[in-house]
Write a structure and sequence with these properties.
By secondary structure, this protein is α/β, with parallel strands linked by helices. It has 8 helices and 5 strands; from the N terminus they run E-H-E-H-H-E-H-H-E-H-H-E-H. The chain has a single domain (22-227), classed as P-loop containing nucleotide triphosphate hydrolases (Rossmann fold, 3-Layer(aba) Sandwich), CATH 3.40.50.300. 49% of the residues lie in helices and 11% in strands. The longest helix is centred in the middle third of the chain and has 25 residues, at 78-102.
Length: 235
């Protein structure tokens, strides 16, 4: 079915008619290969003749720079952080995602409200509060969770950045004074929360411990039926 449902109260002025476009979400931790997979899916879908728009967290013109600046001080409270990201996502939903879906484009989301809810819950928010806060989000046509082991995420982060990010390591939670240990504990908590969400939101889990080629092959097989429901999939 075309995307037009939300998890809660809809944004004011949202179109009543179903959207002709499709919303596909790629979830997973930093280092799970989300961005690589979004790029590969975009290339494949465009070759197939489908217009594609990509989006992600902290990309709105309204708040993205402000969130980045606020995070540099490492002093944001969990509630403030959640509210800032909710406003950022609402701006993107209203001004980018909904117009793109209305125009018939496929929207590829590099992370979605599930990450935002998981972060809030791990930081002490109740699940009901997080679900209400992000309840205006559209229900995707497909959500794929790229699941990578925490030790692999750690190695990939070090290899790519040479260090570990304060927030991605959960240092604000005081899990450990050692950033490596904090990263491991924090990412493990997030992974467990995604496990809770898997059945609740109908995630399709993909083993992301493999090479991008293997991940893309499985991911593409999950995406293809959205465009070829009769079962004919182009390779």
């Amino acid at each position: 079915m075309p995307t037009n449902r939300t998890y809660g109260t809809k944004l004011p002025g949202m179109p009543r008619d179903p959207f002709p476009g499709k919303l596909i979400v790629l979830e997973g931790a930093d280092g799970s290969g989300r961005t690589t997979e979004v790029d590969l899916l975009r290339e494949w879908l465009e070759v197939e003749g489908h217009p594609v728009v990509d989006t992600g967290l902290r990309r709105s013109s309204l708040l993205s720079e402000q969130i980045e600046e606020a995070k540099k001080g490492n002093t944001l409270s969990a509630t403030t952080l959640a509210l800032l990201y909710a406003a950022d996502f609402a701006d993107q939903l209203e001004n980018k995602i909904i117009p793109s879906l209305s125009a018939g484009s496929t929207v590829l989301a590099d992370r979605y409200v599930y990450t935002l809810m998981a972060r809030a819950i791990v930081r002490g928010a109740s699940r009901s509060w997080a679900e209400k806060l992000y309840g205006f989000a559209l229900v995707p046509d497909l959500t794929i969770f790229l699941d990578a082991k925490t030790d692999i995420l750690l190695h990939r982060a070090i290899a790519k950045y040479g260090s570990l990010d304060y927030w991605e390591s959960g240092m604000d939670l005081c899990l450990s004074r050692d950033r490596f240990e904090s990263f491991y504990r924090y990412q493990s908590l997030l992974r467990a929360e995604f496990g809770v969400m898997e059945n609740r939101y109908g995630f399709h889990r993909v083993d992301a411990n493999r090479t991008p080629t293997g991940v893309h092959r499985e991911t593409r097989d999950l995406v293809a039926p959205l465009f070829h429901p009769e079962g004919r999939r182009r390779r």
